[in-house]
Design a protein that fits this description.
It is built from 11 helices and 10 strands. It is of the alpha/beta class. The strands form 2 sheets. An 8-stranded mixed sheet has the order 5-4-1-6-7-9-8-10, sandwiched between helices. Helix 6 links the parallel strand 4 and strand 5. The radius of gyration is 18 Å and the shape is globular.
Length: 294
């Protein structure tokens, strides 16, 4: 079955905002954990976007979400080792006025023995993604429905790796409900894979409750939730709704969270929070037995 969603979401408007910072910090530390063993790993980015975003573009300048996000963090710097690791991963692009999306960030952390698929359904964005990934021999770009590409590639031959899922959650298509239902397929096909699932939090949207309930019921060990509520976003121009006109909170659910990565993320976010504004709330939805026993 093919699921087709309205493709009116463009990430360039939000590149480098607080939600990107948190998502990419988690992704970078999960990949850093996988790199500790010599055995190859697989990365699947199901909603790859374009891979690299021009922060001087009209779209990015319209919202300016990167300014209280990555721009403020780069200016401040970081003492925490993991926070600095993430900032170092994006600093080169930021110096050129760009922000790397998750495919670019992940591709740079691959070793020769590792493999990645970067997928994007939007035809124009897919072409840009293909150009941006052209320099990475072990990265393949596909143009498929996100859930089809996941089913087609798990379990991977490497038997270890990570899947990133961050759709736009088009409510008119009940996309959050489809994501919740797809979790059962992920568990059936590759129960020990690392899955990083992103979602927006807005009071009018049912996305969060649906996904958290489904993830908890799924029962995969070490299912960890991290939500961040921002505070420094500027109001959208021409809007009388101010901060209410935009997403000011987002979350991640990590299935099979690598050992010590949640704790490391929490420590890094403690340093980021005074700069980003707001703060993080984290908890285990499903701890594993060893964690429960201490």
């Amino acid at each position: 079955m093919l699921y087709v969603f309205a493709m009116n979401y463009r990430h360039i408007y939000h590149a480098g905002n607080f939600a990107d910072v948190v998502k990419h910090l988690v992704l970078a530390l999960c990949l850093e954990h996988l790199r500790k063993k010599d055995a190859p790993f697989f990365v699947l980015d199901a909603h790859g976007g374009t891979g690299l975003y021009d922060l001087s573009s009209d779209q990015a300048q319209k919202t300016k979400e990167h300014q209280p996000g990555i721009a403020a963090l780069i200016k401040k710097g970081a003492a925490n080792t993991d926070a600095a690791f993430y900032l170092d991963a994006v600093r080169r692009d930021f110096a050129k006025g760009h922000y790397p999306g998750s495919p670019m960030l992940a591709a740079r952390l691959l070793r020769p023995q590792d493999r990645m698929i970067a997928n994007e359904l939007h035809p124009e964005d897919m072409q840009v993604l293909k150009q941006n990934m052209a320099g990475f021999a072990n990265v393949r770009v596909t143009e498929m429905d996100a859930f089809e590409v996941i089913r087609a590639n798990i379990p991977p031959q490497e038997r270890r790796g990570i899947v990133l899922i961050d759709p736009p959650y088009e409510i008119e298509n009940n996309e959050h409900e489809i994501v919740a239902a797809q979790m059962q397929q992920w568990k059936k096909r590759w129960a020990n894979g690392i899955y990083v699932l992103w979602y927006p939090i807005k009071g009018s949207l049912p996305v969060r409750d649906t996904l958290v309930e489904a993830a908890t019921a799924l029962g995969l060990p070490r299912t960890w939730l991290c939500e961040y509520r921002g505070a420094n976003l500027p109001p959208l121009p021409g809007s009388d709704r101010g901060d209410r006109a935009r997403m000011n909170a987002a979350g991640l659910i990590v299935f099979n969270a690598p050992y010590q990565v949640p704790e490391r993320v929490e420590a890094a976010l403690m340093e980021f929070a005074p700069v980003l504004g707001g703060g993080a709330e984290t908890r285990w939805l499903v701890p594993d037995k060893s964690y429960q026993q201490g």
